[in-house]
Amino acid sequence: MDYRNLEHTPRLNARRSSSRFRSLRHQPLIMAPSGMSTRDLVVEAAAGLFARPGRMILTVLGTVFGLGALVATLGLSRTAGNRIVGRFDELAATEIVVSPKPAAVSTAIGALPWDAPQRLGRLNGVVAVGNLSTVNIDKRLIASSGVNDPNNQRNFKLTVAAATAGLFRAVRADLDSGTLFNIAHSDRAERVAVLGPSAAQRLGIPHLNEPTAIMIGDDVFVIVGILNAVQRQPELLGAVIIPEGTARRYYRLTNPGSVVIETRIGATGLLANQVAFALRPDNPRALKIVSPPEPQRVRDAVKNDLNLLFLILGGVSLLVGAIGIANVTLVSVIERTGEIGLRRAIGATRRHIARQFLVESTAMGFVGGVMGASLGTLVVVGVAAYQNWTPVLDPVAPFLAPVVGGFTGLIAGTYPAIRASRLAPVDALRAGT
Amino acid sequence: MVPTVLVLRQQKCLVAEAPVNVADPPPVVELDHVTKRFETDPPIAAITDVSFSIREGEWVAIVGPSGSGKSTLLNVIGCLDTHTSGSYRFDGFDVAALSDRQRAGLRSRGIGFVFQSFNLLAHRSVVDNVALADVYRRGPRRTRFARAEAALGRVGLSHRIGFLPTRLSGGERQRVAIARALMGTPRLLLCDEPTGNLDSTTSDSVLNLFGDLHQQGMTIAMITHDLTVATRAQRRVRITDGRLTEER
Q1: pTM for the complete prediction?
Q2: How far apart are CA B171 and CA A42, in angstroms?
Q3: Closest CA–CA distance from residue B222 to any residue of chain A (Å)
Q4: Stretch A96-106: mean pLDDT, rounded?
Q5: Contact at 8 Å (CB) between A45 and A365?
Q6: Do the chains contact at B123 and A352, CB–CB below 8 Å?
Q7: Burial of A213 from C-beta contacts in 10 A (0-12 / 13-18 / 19+)
Q8: Do residues A361 and A417 make contact, with C-beta atoms less than 8 angstroms apart?
Q9: Strand ranges (E), A265-424
């Protein structure tokens, strides 16, 4: 080759005639600014990344776990949230509890009417309704036997509740043995009682195999039934439940303590506005209506709570991943000072150096995002399969994770890239030898 | 950008219009009273009032002891550093008037560097190391590796194309570095102690290679502290305490 006859490459001459390089058209080739194609940039960055594969894998692992945790948190919170909302819909969304406001109890007589079940039963959407009151039995104890045996304590302080017959359906009571009292028992003020399972256990009456009676103070009550469980008003589990008419006659019950309503799904919002007028048209504000918020509102609230959790966990995960990338890229810049010097010597500008390190850190974040999304999705599916749940995952999350990872890498790599680009060629070459 | 280009064009025209002596090739490097001062405390003048030129096809050895300013002179000639005062023209162009990107372009297309410590990327193959020189001048990718292989063939390393530099001897590594420098058909081959890390036999082989390149018309500037190496050059200049004296 004769170096006296240097040839310009056709491609560069073609580039110089393009509009972008119009200002260089009359400039000798040797003075044209250096350049780097995107493909070369990607190839060089990939080569830089794979120069130390072990370190790259460890660095990427930080992002993988960070973004994997992010996707898994998002998926698991959605999955769990779905179940929370599902359970909420099933029970709480069909319950309304009406009680007099404390001020009304003290100032008004009969804040709640005795015929509340009849009044509310006529409203559309009401499935079951019953009065529930706590009976004041003073200091009387409850015993399962009339014999006072000092060696076998059978007298207990138990809650006595007065209920109308409809309450058992309203609280979804499940009967273990015997039967429930009805409106006739209440009208005749009969001394019958139904025991909650805990109360029955304490009183030593596991089953009603034979007629059984208990003593409330000196009054004998025949046990007609024992409950197995209640899904609402859990205080009934440990209570002795007597008819409301009985409580009015023998224990001077002055007015119902509360009204428990079971509604059809979706009817609570409307009924909550109607019951106060149905019960106390003269003073609806005297009543306290406890109804669940609308399911959509609950779902939104749960989602907001979970989103906050997701944001906190995700933010911490991303921060850890970003610090890892920044740290490794910075170390890489220091280690590759000689390489930076060489690249500057053979024509790289500051911008070329910065771009290469930015592409490397962004690629690490992106790859970490892809792997993290896969890992997170696997975790969600695995946990859901183990718990027999339905996995719920926002389809955007797995696709967004690589983007977030790449952006994190870009941000994390900015400082090291600037630092690398600011190295003077002479200093970089000297430091690298 | 445009005014700079215009200035460059005018400068080029001036050079082009100068009377050309056929027996006297045009200078590639022209230093005219060049001084490089480092603004430390106290300021240090690494090279002072240096004036000399390297003509096309010349092989010049710049000789001097350690700390004499050799490396600073190489950095200025190689456009790795800027001079403080005086005038430096490369191939007729005033280097001081060039932007950072233009100087990078000049390094990429006009100068081939050969360093004492080879400066090869250990994790890239021999051919990749050579092809790297083409990346920043946007050379055609399609022929890049063929040209890199050809450059390796010129330095006698066709059989080491796929090797990693860590598996090569010192002499072979320096040949790879020379192949990389030759990749872009530079106007000037700038060598910083090219045999400093080599034994005498390998040094001789590398210097023979420089001799061949010189015979083919390559302009070579070689910085060395070794007088034996310097004697192989066509012309020697000595630098002492930052000042240049012509030896031959």
Answers
A1: 0.64
A2: 32
A3: 16
A4: 76
A5: no
A6: no
A7: middle
A8: yes
A9: 287-290
